[in-house]
Amino acid sequence: MSFLAKTSNIMDRDLYSSTFMTNYIEDDLNPARLAMINYFKWEKVATLFYNEDIFVSQMNEFHKLLDDNNITLVTSGVITDVQEVDVVLKRLKQYGARIIIGAFRSTKAPNIFCEIYKQRMFGNKYVWILTDSLYEGWIGRLDEGDATCSIENIRTAADGHFTLGQKQLRTDEVVTISGRTAQEYNTWMKNISSQYDSSTMLLSKYSPWAYDAAWALAVALNKSMLYLGSNELENFSYNRSDIYDAIKRGMGEVFFQGVSGPVSFRNGRRVGPAFIQINNGDNRVDVAMYEPLNDTIGWWRSPSSLFKGGVVPRDSFHYITRRFKQSFAGISMVALLITTGVVVALGFLWFNIYYRNNRNIKMSSPRINNTIIFGGLLIYLAVIFMSMDYAGILSELNRHICMLNVWIISVGFTLGFGALFSKTFRVHVLFIQGTVRKQAISDAHLFGLLGGLVLLDILFLAFWTFFHPLRLIQKNVTIELDNSDEILVETFHVCYNEYQTYWLAAQYISKGALLALGTFLAWETRHIKVPSLNDSKYIGFCVYNIVIVCALCVPVTFVLPPEKPTAKFVFTSVVCVFTTTLVLCILFIPKVKLRKSTDAIRFNPNLTKSTNSYTIKNGHSNEHTKTTNISTVEEFKSDFQEKCYEKSSFTDQISNTSSKVKLITVDSERSVLNDGELNGEESLQKDVNCTSI
């Protein structure tokens, strides 16, 4: 006989076939748990318990009980370290657990309920059914700092949880087998204990179980005599199996009213009532009693009144799946920005076409400028596709939208900045080392250079698309609606490939190299003071803004969680449109202002008095070369400045000389005049562009 045995192995009847207990163990609460679940018609539950033998054994038995009664165990959480309880609770929440059966000690409860508070797993949507291993008033004994939450937070999370337990001393007025009521027994025992020194001996709260253990053994011995002769017990011997069997049979038939409650045994374990208690703060109140003999619950209060709002929570959420709610304000703002950017770009395009014969615009290479604008329009097109994907328009493009945007943005960037830097490359070649070189670079050369850059882009993107293309995958975000049994599941799509980081890094490096090259060319040509010809200053502004914006914004796009598609869409779109429009304005607003300029070309004062070759033809069949300093043509330059590029004046000066003048042109629409003899008559017939130097 035992009145305190609680270890898990005591239940092994193969080892302890003749052991009987008047105390209860945690496993004895499983029938009460099951009865409560059946009463409220819950069909799905979860369990949460600490990794100790006393809790593991009862939960293993409870899981079998659930399976035998066709109740679904949605998930089971085992706590091995209270510092990692957040992971366990997140798993319970992920599986939609609402009715949670728990088993852990009061010492672990503060950290567990602190995390319950953080995860918002309390209130009228959740039911926590624990055991009286959480002693009454445990919250009131906490000190601030026992957990990472305040005591008030823990009190809030624990408010309204249920506990199941048994009584050491019954509370009714039933007269027990001893002839005393439970209260009379308690008074009697206190009088006895008062005779002893309280510093060395105290009355145990488990004394009713010990008292009933003696009565249980007495009743069992009496019943064993029915199976033996009247005097056989007096001949007791441990070697007599018939006496052993008779006493064991008698123990199985024990039933009486003890001071701890009704006493009977099943497989050596105490069969007795379990009490259902509601906990509000530090107050624990009995609200029902489970009677194991007839498997019923007797409620002393209305069951529905035990729950907040007077409604019994459901055992599972009702999930509503829909596409995430798009932000009309976000779409409107992006649409307005795109419209503004496209209008600005088309305005600059019209300007280039309309004023293409203007001498200042012609010197800035209108066709190259148009290519820059076309690159900007491609960026706007990519943002339009992003907006359509965000708004759910043209869903048939969804599986292609990821790589399509990558292609458009990459080619658009290369066209825009590649064309811009190619113009600077031409200026760099013509004026390298401060000396005018005798060579001509037409727009065809520049478009060939640009085509090479685009070809490299296409090859890179083709390999990316073939080997590791970005694919659209669906992600979900769950939103719990307040005061509702519904959970909203919002779906959205993200572009993903496990190797995308490597491809993006390669792309950023290539685009960065292009910007670095353009910055180098702009720096090298910074002293060329021909506003309509040289964009080095504006290139510096463009690259500076691009680098700053990318340095700030690219990390943000990776930090923004995919669960916030609206924020990511708006941020990415605004950055793309803003930087593209800013670059176009930096490049073309000065050209708009320059269209009416009549200032002569201002030669770089730093140009050295280097020599240039030209040939003299003296009427003979043979030619000889004469070298002269650029200063010998100062009269042409002076008259050129005074006449403001008037063709007639310029050609008149040339016609009055017998020289063959080598011309270096930066005209985007004229062929270069190399070693062509310009006599007076021919010069009047040729349409020599006054932008040629």
TrEMBL record:
- The principal location of this protein is membrane
How the protein sits in the membrane?
A: Multi-pass membrane protein
A Pfam family the protein falls into:
7tm_3
Any one Gene Ontology molecular-function term assigned to this protein's record: G protein-coupled GABA receptor activity
PROSITE patterns (alphabetical):
G_PROTEIN_RECEP_F3_4
According to the entry, every stretch annotated as the G-protein coupled receptors family 3 profile domain falls at 364-594
**GO annotations of cellular component type:** G protein-coupled receptor heterodimeric complex
Subcellular location(s) per record:
Cell membrane
Alphabetical GO biological process terms: gamma-aminobutyric acid signaling pathway
Instruction: Give TM regions.
Output: 328-351, 372-394, 406-425, 446-467, 502-523, 538-560, 566-589
Q: Which CDD domains match?
A: 7tmC_GABA-B-like, PBP1_GABAb_receptor
Protein name, UniProt field: Gamma-aminobutyric acid type B receptor subunit 2
- Which species is this UniProt entry from? Crassostrea virginica (Eastern oyster)
Mind giving the lineage of the organism this protein is from?
Eukaryota, Metazoa, Spiralia, Lophotrochozoa, Mollusca
